Recover the amino acids of this structure.
């Protein structure tokens, strides 16, 4: 590690957004103790997230904490994606918390603390900072998954996620210790300078890299480290499932990009085939197993697995083009997946979660506007133009082809075609079948705002992708 420098107020400026968000989380806990009306909680959480975004955009950046933390344009992009996912979650949560009788105080505080962990992960330029951020994120999300204390599925989801997450954290620590023993540093930025020539092809080094990557594959739900995903996504509160499918995944991809392209760029010949195999396996498992699902949450869980495989295509390329394509895809995925889960929440009522495909029968006849938005999100998840999902997949595949991984792209195209079956099955249920029961979804202002933002993101990036692509490209300047 680098020499320890004294901590001054000016040295904390790069971490000011994270410090501010910690204070927001503490404030939410205090407000929950003394304020009876809990309607203020989502407003405070949402305002805190928006102000954090403003702080990020006006932060001069730079290193902090003895260069173990760096606020740069690369981390800024992923932080904004994570905060966008958190903001959408906060806006769509009040109605769901009311339906499930979940206490809002601990819910919003844990949500805020998990985002702080993700932001630390995105800015981590040292493996110790990475571990600290990952644990803060993970412990908060474990608790969020089990907040429906009277629901056995929620309890099971939290326990499974906690146990598997604990194992993955232990593996990460072992990988960090092994890498430190080989190189004498935990700094990601300094790894390339501390790797002697004689370590090229060293089996211990390859093992260390693999042990560090396994927990990150676990967090993005890449196969074969995906086993927790369907059960946890199904058992967790639906608003938290939506959040987990977007924000933690983006934070883990930020770390993957920084470690592999900044720490081990000269070892692409070693880790490239591993990423290629995992990407193909992930796309295969996610898209094929999703066909058999009757629960919409489990189907979207396997969809999330498959999309992790697509996101790995950009990392696989090992180039700035590929990494910017992955960054753009994380932004696109946030809009289309949060939108799909917002529709799932809108269908729910007191005592009726309506999480099975059967509940979507004839939705176009009973709730035509809701069915149309779900149709748009399904088309985007497939990758049908002119949606944002098509733009995201297109640039990922182009980057992989330019890097010489045409055979992986062929597999991605095949699995994308397979995915059309289960996504279009939802469309079939909504438009081709008669409704089993007639009900009218209650569209609150918050839910309407989430749907408008999600639809705007999917359509806007799909038709005019230049701004998002340029933002992702600019974020890699100096990376």
């Amino acid at each position: 590690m680098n020499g320890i420098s004294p901590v001054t107020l000016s040295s904390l400026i790069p971490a000011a957004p994270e410090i501010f968000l910690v204070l927001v989380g503490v404030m939410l806990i205090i407000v929950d103790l003394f304020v009876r009306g809990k309607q203020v909680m989502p407003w405070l959480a949402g305002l805190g997230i928006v102000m954090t975004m403003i702080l990020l955009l006006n932060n001069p950046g730079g290193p902090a904490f003895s260069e173990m933390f760096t606020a740069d344009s690369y981390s800024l992009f992923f932080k904004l994606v994570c905060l966008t996912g958190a903001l959408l979650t906060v806006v769509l949560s009040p109605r769901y918390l009311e339906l499930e009788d979940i206490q809002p105080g601990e819910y919003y505080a844990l949500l805020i603390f998990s985002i702080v962990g993700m932001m630390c992960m995105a800015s981590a330029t040292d493996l110790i900072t990475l571990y600290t951020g990952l644990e803060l994120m993970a412990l908060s999300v474990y608790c969020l998954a089990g907040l429906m204390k009277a629901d056995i599925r929620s309890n099971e989801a939290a326990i499974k996620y906690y146990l598997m997450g604990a194992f993955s954290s232990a593996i990460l620590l072992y990988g960090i210790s092994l890498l430190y023993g080989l190189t004498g540093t935990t700094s990601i930025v300094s790894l390339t300078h501390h790797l002697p020539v004689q370590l090229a092809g060293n089996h211990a080094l390859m093992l260390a890299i693999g042990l560090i990557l396994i927990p990150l594959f676990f967090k993005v739900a890449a196969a074969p480290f995906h086993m927790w995903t369907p059960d946890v996504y199904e058992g967790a509160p639906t608003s938290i499932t939506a959040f987990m499918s977007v924000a933690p995944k983006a934070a883990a991809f930020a770390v993957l990009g920084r470690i592999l392209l900044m720490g081990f760029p000269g070892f692409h010949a070693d880790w490239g085939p591993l990423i290629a195999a995992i990407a193909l396996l992930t796309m295969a498992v996610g898209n094929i197993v999703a066909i058999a699902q009757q629960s919409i949450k489990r189907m979207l869980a396997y969809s999330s697995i498959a999309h992790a495989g697509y996101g790995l295509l950009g990392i696989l390329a090992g180039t700035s083009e590929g990494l910017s394509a992955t960054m753009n895809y994380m932004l696109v995925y946030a809009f289309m997946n949060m939108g799909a889960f917002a529709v799932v929440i809108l269908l729910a009522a007191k005592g009726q979660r309506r999480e099975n495909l059967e509940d979507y029968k004839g939705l176009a006849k009973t709730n035509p506007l809701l069915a149309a938005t779900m149709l748009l999100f399904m088309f985007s998840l497939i990758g049908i133009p002119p949606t944002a999902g098509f733009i995201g997949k297109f640039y990922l595949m182009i980057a992989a082809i330019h890097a010489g991984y045409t055979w992986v792209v062929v597999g991605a195209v095949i699995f994308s075609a397979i995915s059309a079956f289960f996504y279009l099955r939802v469309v079939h249920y909504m438009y081709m079948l008669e409704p089993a029961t007639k009900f009218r979804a209650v569209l609150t202002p918050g839910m309407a705002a989430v749907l408008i933002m999600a639809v705007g993101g999917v359509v806007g990036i799909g038709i005019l992708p230049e701004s998002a692509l340029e933002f992702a490209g600019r974020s890699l300047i100096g990376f």
Q: What stands out?
A: The CA atoms of residues 11 and 64 lie 6 Å apart. Residues 152-183 form the longest helix (32 residues). Strands lie at 62-64, 69-71. Residues 270-479 form one domain.
